[in-house]
Structures are given as structure tokens and as C-alpha cells.
Amino acid sequence: LIGIDRNETGIAKFRVSYPEVKVEVGDFDDFDFEGKNIDVLIHLAAMKHIDLCEQNPNSCVQNNIIKTYNLFKKAHRNGVDILFMSTDKAVEPNSVYGFTKALGERMVTEYNGSFVRSGNVTASNGSVLEIWDEAIDNQKPIAITHKDMRRYFITSENLVTRIWHQYLKGEQVIIPKMDKDIRLINLAEEKLRAYGYTLKNYPGGIEYVGL
To answer: DSSP 3-state assignment of 86?
Structure first.
């Protein structure tokens, strides 16, 4: 295994848990495949926050399309298979993020690689659960987009297992089964219960912020 990232804090934490794995610091499209005898590129890097991508489309395109294209081209040139992490938001996209990931799918398809359309990963960086934990710790409002909004969640362990199983079977469009389909208001209720609150007595209240 060889990792590449520019998140210094993330790399430092990773090296504590996995000291035997080599990690290179830098932009992923700078990675040199020459002479490394690599079997598969697993591409997980992306700008993924919907609002930030809407506000910074140039940065999103640079990272999610241009750098990704450069990486795929080099991998393909060196005979390296590609496994690309996409999103369910690439289906009939209506956001900058969704459009960039849809284009990423088309690029990886041209190189006969595989891509994964997943829902939300439980406890991933920037997930709604992480945001709510911070809000509750500070007695701030629980932000929900809409009272009828549904989300589809999966644990990272189950996601990795299902993706790898389908990839080894040769599937090019990988759509793993999600663990949980839940309305956000019900998920918020579960989260608040873990802290000893209900929707009615939580002092920070619930705030509907819009889609």
C-alpha cells in the first residue's frame, strides 16, 4: 500500500495506526507510477461539501475533474486499474459536486475502470452526525434541510467490504447496499436521545435551513 495526501493532520494520525504503510505528502495528481508495480489505484480524494463546491466551483472542478483526469491518465498509461469513489449525487446531478463526480464516472469508464456510487458514510469527515455532535456539545440548533429529507447511511467497514467484493467480481458500476434508510428528523431524534434529550426539550432547538 502507498498513500498520498496533503492533509498533514490526517497523515500524522494515520501513521500512528498504520506505521508500516508508506504515505507521500502532496497533490494526488503528482503521484509517479513509474517503476512501482502498482495493481490498482483507489481514488478517494475529492471536494465533497455541497455548499463549498457551490461557492467555489473553480476549486471543485480543479480537484474533482482536472487533477482526477491527470491521475487517471497516468494510471492508465502505466497499466494500473482504477477504482473511483463517486456518489449517489452523480445520478441526474443538480449540484456542482454532483456534476464533477458524474464526469469522473465517465472518465474512469473510458479507461475501463470501476466506480462506486455510495450514500452517506457514517461518521465520515463532515458528516451530519459529526456536525450535530458539535452543535449539541455547544447547545446550538440542530440543522436539518427539510422535515421530509431522507438519508442513506452505511458504516465505513461495511462499505469497504461490499465495494471490494464487487470490485473483485469485475463489476464496473458498483452500487453497494446501504445499511440504513432514515428521515433526518428521526435520525436527529436518535442522536438527541443518546445525549439524554428529546426533540421537544433540547435547549438548542431544531432549525430547518432549506435544501
So the answer is: coil
The pTM score is 0.85
The strand pairing partners of 120, in sequence order, are 153
175-202: pLDDT as tens digits: 999 998 999 999 999 999 999 999 999 9
What span, in angstroms and rounded, lies between the C-alpha atoms of 200 and 110?
52
3-state helix, strand, coil in the chain (%, to 5): 45, 20, 40
DSSP secondary structure letter of residue 65: I
89 is a catalytic site residue: yes
The rounded distance, in Å, linking the Cα atoms of 161 and 54 is 32
Amino acid at 42: I
Annotated catalytic residue within 89, 140, 169, 200 = 89
Long-range contacts made by residues 125-131, C-beta under 8 angstroms, separation at least 24? Answer: 126/48, 126/49, 128/184, 128/187, 129/187, 129/191
Tell me the pLDDT tens digit for each residue of 73-127.
999 999 999 999 999 999 999 999 999 999 999 999 999 999 999 988 887 777 7
